[in-house]
Amino acid sequence: MQAQGLSRELVGTPPVILVSDVSLKIDPGSFVAIVGPSGCGKSSLLYLLGLLDRPTEGSVLFEGQDMNPLDGDERAQIRLASFGFVFQFHFLLPEFTALENVMLPMRRLGRLSQAQAQEKAQSLLIDVGLAKKMDKTPNRMSGGERQRVAIARAIANDPVLILCDEPTGNLDSQNSARVVEMFRTLAHDQDRAVVCVTHDADVAAAADVQISMLDGRISETDIRKQ
Amino acid sequence: MSGQLRLLASVAARHLAGRRRQTLVAVSGVAVGVGFFLAVSAMMIGSQNDFIKTLIDAAPHIIISDELRSPPPQPGVRFYKGAAIALRHYKVRNEVRGLKGWPEILRTVNALPGAVGSPNLTGAITLRSGGREEALTIVGVDPAVEEKVSSIADKLRTGRLRDLESTQGGIIIGEEMAQRLGLAMGDVVGATSASGNSRSLRIVGLFKRGQTQLSSALGYVLLREAQSLLGRPFIINRIGVHLSDPYGAQPISRRLEARFAYKAQSWQERSADLLSLLVTRNVIMYSVVSAILLVASFGIYTVVSNSVSDKRRDIAIMRSIGFSESDLQLIFIFEGLALALVGILAGWLLGYGLLAILGSLHFPIGGDNQRLPLDRSARQYAIAAAASLFSGVIAAWLPARKAARVDPVDILRGAV
Q1: What is the residue-wise DSSP string for B19-43?
Q2: What is the Cα–Cα distance from B348 to B368, expressed in whole angstroms?
Q3: What is the CA radius of gyration of chain A?
Q4: Residue A165 in contact with residue A198, Cβ under 8 Å?
Q5: Which chain B residue has the Cα nearest residue A48?
Q6: How far is Cα B402 from Cα B178, in angstroms, rounded to an integer?
Q7: Cα A127 from Cα A134, distance rounded (Å)
Q8: Predicted pLDDT of residue A225
Q9: Is the pLDDT of residue A14 over 70?
Q10: What does the DSSP assignment read for A63-116?
Q11: B414 interaction partners in chain A (CB closer than 8 Å)
Q12: Contact B242/B116 with Cβ under 8 angstroms?
């Protein structure tokens, strides 16, 4: 995953600059944290990298391919098959149980049969320690549990890139530590790339690469070898 | 692919399950629309069919008469084809009226599949009884054939058409005419024709009063009797044709007319004014009941529209997971489709029930106990379903488009 000269402006008078001329490279197996003050453009950068938004200038390259010419459906297909998202507010579908929420991306992708998808969702939920909560709907779970369901759902289709927006923002320190540990495992043991936008110093400290942003630009890149 | 449609449908089902009351209101809206569509259209179409049946049965489906729609061309014009000939003030030869070569015409008619032709002679006579006189148009018929061609036999209060054959000089007249002349069954009445022939006729049958299609100034006698009374032996001036399929009368009448030149009038031609009235009636009915169905679909619009605005967060997360815009649009169209389908099924039941109630009602009209003529054909059920489904999908599609256009970034940014 590469970004070249990414810029994003909101049309208006004067135009609001969210991200300005950002270039970066994310390797498989790395855990990248993007930090910076509120409104510095880190979430906007994440949406651009996650193909949820289109840049005003510059381009995102994924597996060497320029993402700009792709239409909405093609970008949706890439998100489905190769990306996983985790947000601050969990965003589980409230009418579905934990198990069904995790099965959702697999059923949409359609590579696994219903039975296989169910089996895989069960094992993912067991991995995140929710063996007993599979048939509960989100409103009967705690915040930490919901976030773990969201992570299980994000990795359901074996994505190569996991994008997180303040994943620990709503969690206590114990749950936060657990989530951070999961991300490290995903990056280092399963060779996926994890990009995390965060305010949380603990999350930032656990990352291999820390990118600091200010006013839409990258102000500092701190690479720490593990 | 079908697995994915099932997935989208299951999301739609969960959405609806989460808003039971609104769903119930929308479904009952469609159900009431469909139910009353069925009830109203069954009555309208039923009464229309009843009316058309009366029109069709009033007289033979095609009447071939000894009239010409345009005068025959003059020999000079026929001889010099395309020449500049103008003939004026010529005298037309006084021809003996009647269908010339009628046995040939009758054979042709009877050779048509499902067709029966009945030769008639009509003419004017005067009935006299006890100093009172009434003008009457008599129709000379062959009872055995006429029974197959017209419904006159069903309209008799007393007597049978066949009695004309068994009684010498028998005549059937209307109840009103009999009352005016002070006559009853079995009475003898004097009859004089325009040609001066005069004889006594015995009343062997009376047809019911209040028949629009049977004038009270009409009487039936045997064909031979009419020919002799009117002084026109072996002549007929009318052939009534009965068809197994009355709706095919028009092309057949045109063919007969083209072949024999005599005027052949189908029942549609005779009742063109009434038929055009029915068209207007149908336009009115369908616009009213379509309005009912349309209003029913407003309920669907409300449910789907509310669902879209309530589920903006879910839409955003599903888009981020990798559901496409058309996936989201389909989910909400499925919601509308489900509401419409359940509504249609309930509406069918309601309509079936309403028809059962309407069908059980009795109305005493003219001494006869009559029921509402109802059309219970599956076609009406299909039309109601198709119209509701169509308006339901449109009603869902409008808000569903909005769901597809939700920008996930706006929602995610707002939530964080």
Answers
A1: -HHHHHHHHHHHHHHHHHHHHHHHH
A2: 32
A3: 17
A4: no
A5: B409
A6: 77
A7: 12
A8: 57
A9: yes
A10: TTEESTT--HHHHHHHHHHHEEEE-TT----TTS-HHHHHHHHHHHHT-S-HHH
A11: none
A12: yes
Which distant-in-sequence residues (6+ apart) come within 8 Å of B404 by Cβ?
Answer: B325, B326, B328, B329
Residues 6 or more apart whose Cβ sits within 8 Å of residue B63 = B238, B239, B240, B241, B264, B265, B270
Please count the CA atoms within 13 angstroms of the CA of A97 that sit on its side-chain side: 13
- Which stretches of chain B sit within 8 Å of chain A by CB? 1, 3-4, 7, 11, 14-15, 17-18, 313-314, 316-327, 408-409, 412-413, 415-416
Phi, psi of B370 (to 5 degrees): -110, 155
ipTM of the complex: 0.89
Q: Which amino acid is at B187?
A: D
More confident residue, B291 or B78: B291
Q: A207 is written with which tokens? A: 């990352």
B170-202 pLDDT tens trace = 999 988 888 888 888 989 999 998 888 888 999
**Which residue of chain B is at minimal alpha-carbon distance from A75?**
B322
CA distance B272 to B72: 26
Question: Which token pair is B115?
Answer: 């067709």
Coil, helix or strand for A51? coil
Beta carbons of B18 and A95 less than 8 Å apart: yes
To the question of pTM greater than 0.90 for the whole model, the response is no
Confidence of residue B416 (pLDDT cuts 50, 70, 90): very low
